[in-house]
Amino acid sequence: xxxxxxxxxxxxxxxxxxxxxxxxxxxxxxxxxxxxxxxxxxxxxxxxxxxxxxxxxxxxxxxxxxxxxxxxxxxxxxxxxxxxxxxxxxxxxxxxxxxxxxxxxxxxxxxxxxxxxxxxxxxxxxxxxxxxxxxxxxxxxxxxxxxxxxxxxxxxxxxxxxxxxxxxxxxxxxxxxxxxxxxxxxxxxxxxxxxxxxxxxxxxxxxxxxxxxxxxxxxxxxxxxxxxxxxxx
Length: 233
Known about the structure:
This protein is α/β, with parallel strands linked by helices and 233 residues long. The chain has helices at 15-27, 38-48, 64-72, 88-96, 109-123, 157-168, 176-183, 192-206; strands at residues 7-11, 31-35, 52-56, 58-59, 62-63, 79-83, 101-104, 131-134, 137-140, 145-148, 151-153, 174-175, 221-224, 228-231. The longest helix is centred in the middle third of the chain and has 15 residues, at 109-123.
């Protein structure tokens, strides 16, 4: 039996963007459902129950943040937001409202599709692996052991908590606030300086420095300036 095609809600008031995204989705075997504003998007989502959403941040009757909040009242579907370079505060607000990732305009079609497919995979995860491998990095979640190139690396409890959060959602952008909330607790969600210090320590332990052993630098944790971090998928 052929699996049903997945449907993606595309929310943008620019017709050319909607047309381009619809063509991209059809080429990937996905159906598109178009909406041009917040209210229309929420109505269509409630009626058709799409599998994911791609949402522009600036809409005629509100923002993509409003769409994220509305969808998150009843759905865990993957949400990607489209943003301009200078909309950093809105990007952070959308991620805090439940968006899974963002793509900056103008965007490449391959990047948008890759991020969407990664989000769809995370939405239907396989049973958690006892050991998660990302390139040279191996993380045993049950035993709380970390190895790099087969060599055991000692992490503090805080460093392991950060790595566990990143590796469980590898490829997904995690905001400063979400990492601080998970590892330190709600009272510390504004302490970005502390987070940066521990991320720097974690990087020193799991990433190869420039020119180490003649190898090129290895970057596993990627910084999204002003927003958060993601572990390379």
